[in-house]
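FAQ: What does the model actually see?

It sees only this:
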Amino acid sequence: MARATIAWCATKCDSSPSNYTFSVEVCWAILWCSMLSLLPGCGGAGDGAGRGNTVALAYCCGDRVLSPMMDANARLLVFLPLVGQDERGEPVGRLARSWEHSADYREWTFHLRTDVQWHDGVPATAEDVKFTVDLWSHPDINWYGAAASTEALNDSTVVVRYLDPTDALRYLPWLVYYPKHLLENEDPKQFHDWEFWREPVGNGPYRFVRLVPATIMEFEANPDFYAGKPEIEHVVLKFVADAGQTELVSGGVDVLTDPKLEQVLQFQSNSRFQLLYSFVSNVGLAIYWNHASPLFRDSRVRRALTLAVDRHELLGTLGFPVSTPIVDGPFTEQQLRRSGLSEAAVSKDTAEAVHLLDTAGWRDRDGDGLRDRDGLAFRFTVLVGGQPYNRQVAVYVQQQLRRLGIQMNILPLEGSVVYQRVNAGDFDAAVGLMGLPADWLSRYFGAGSLLGYRNADVAGLVDDIEATADPGIRDRLVTELRAIFSDEVPALFLFPSVRFVIAHRRLRGLASPWKAEPTRFMDELWLAEERHQ
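And it is asked to produce this:
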């Protein structure tokens, strides 16, 4: 069947334009997929067995998936970061074999591997790292990995100096580096549109093979990879838009990246697939209260709002793993990795919530089902943007507060609009991210808090956190901050953000939460049927 399709489609592709019944792009997509089914390809049996030693992933980002603008994990198939993360989330050398830093964490010296080559055979050196970091600093690019200065001491040693002492620890596992000899004459003004992103030459575990526009991008195992040729021979990114679930169930792909929450819930009990999750660094979700409002000035009221919500039940409703920690404030990535988080001090207690609201003077005096005080009903609106599950979080909290006699209306908006309104103080409450770096803490809890929150001890801790990059010191300061927040409850802190992956069980070697992203660890994975042959 596949050979007949190839012959038919090749004839069509060679026809004159007047005989085309579909576009050239579609024609070649069909031809390429048919060829892949004879080699390692797309499609195949529902269990992936017909695909051979190939992993196919449903991907969102189209032809520019490897562009920095997409910021997708797929770039780690082709390009190496200086430092990656191991299965425990701890730093591990990739392009760099070792490194050291100054006491203030602003200057980092990286000693590079000398056995890494670009896929065209040219050695990867410190000049490539310097070129890339300098490129990010170019005024026409100004990318987030930009540093104050970079110096290549020799072919295998590079020094990077950062203005912000937290930048290196924040970006090292995510940023990759590019070949100077291929890109130094490209126009930085066209950076995000370079053809290089569609036909990349990298230094990572997989080499680019070809792109079928708007359809697939295929890679092959790099036989010259410094850690050895990966076991999985081919990787195919299949650009399927919203059809990822259908492709996964039918066997068109092995992996569904970034599934929707309803898809996660549907696959929880499907034995053919593994549901994996990873934490999104040290970011989480919270509902922020406007402390300028008479509804939220009293810490007893804010505590009651948190006591009303069963955050463990909320996790289950969303399909989050039971091991997801519940915390009463921000946390560091190191605490998340090393289980340095204690259980939240504020847990659901409806009776205590009722008592606190009564004590604070909020009672249902007119029998309309809503609490009131001084003629003001306890009614407010929460702004919701961002991730789709933010709305589901708001609906759950709405139901819990209604039982206390509090009416929370939900107003869905674009994330940028929510941000603008919070900045302007034009809100009652808002669902938003929580986490580090410290500029988030300064924005919401520092001396100039956008929430109208005022606490001199907290503001001092926020300044101290912002001033240091030492992981041990930051852990201690953030723990002190959470202790204050568990008393004052300036926001309803919910849980760390989680990213899901659904993968067929034929793909082995993945594990939650620190080894759940296939494209980050593809060179360490294997396929069950291939390893047993």
